[in-house]
Amino acid sequence: MRSTIRHELTEAVSAYEDKPREQWLFDFAAQVALCSVQIWWTTEVNIAFGRLEEGYDNALKEYNKKQVNISEQNMSLTEDFVFLHYEN
């Protein structure tokens, strides 16, 4: 079981940048996707802080915009899911 989860998590983290996020989310089990998103969030925040230290003053603001966009996409996916599964 542990080796399966480790394998799936490795696959999910590796595939994160290969597909649009909306598609990638449905390729993996929810817990694997959630853990992978947290790994990528940590990585991207560290990159943003690194850019800030390099003198790029808007690094965190730009990353915040990306996160707001992702949140809006998540809301849209949730609304679509609810509509498709509960309205019909």
Shape call: flat
The portion of residues forming beta strands comes to: under 5%
Low-confidence stretches are none
- Element string (H = helix, E = strand): HHHH
User: What is the count of structural domains?
Assistant: 1
Number of strands: 0
The largest β sheet comes out as: none
Count of runs of 4 or more consecutive helical residues: 4
Overall pLDDT, averaged? Answer: 90
Judged by helices, strands and strand pairing, the structural class is mainly alpha
What is the gyration radius calculated from CA atoms? 16 Å
**Distance N to C terminus:** 37 Å
Q: Share of helix among residues?
A: over 70%
Note down, in words, how this protein is organized:
This protein is mainly alpha-helical and 88 residues long. It has four helices and no strands. The chain has helices at 2-15, 21-24, 30-53, 59-86. It is flat, with a radius of gyration of 16 Å.
SSE topology:
Elements: H1 2-15, H2 21-24, H3 30-53, H4 59-86
Helix pairs in contact: 1-3
Short description:
Helix content is 80%, strand content 0%. It is an all-alpha fold and 88 residues long.
What structural keywords apply?
single chain, 88 residues, mainly alpha, 4 helices, 80% helix, flat
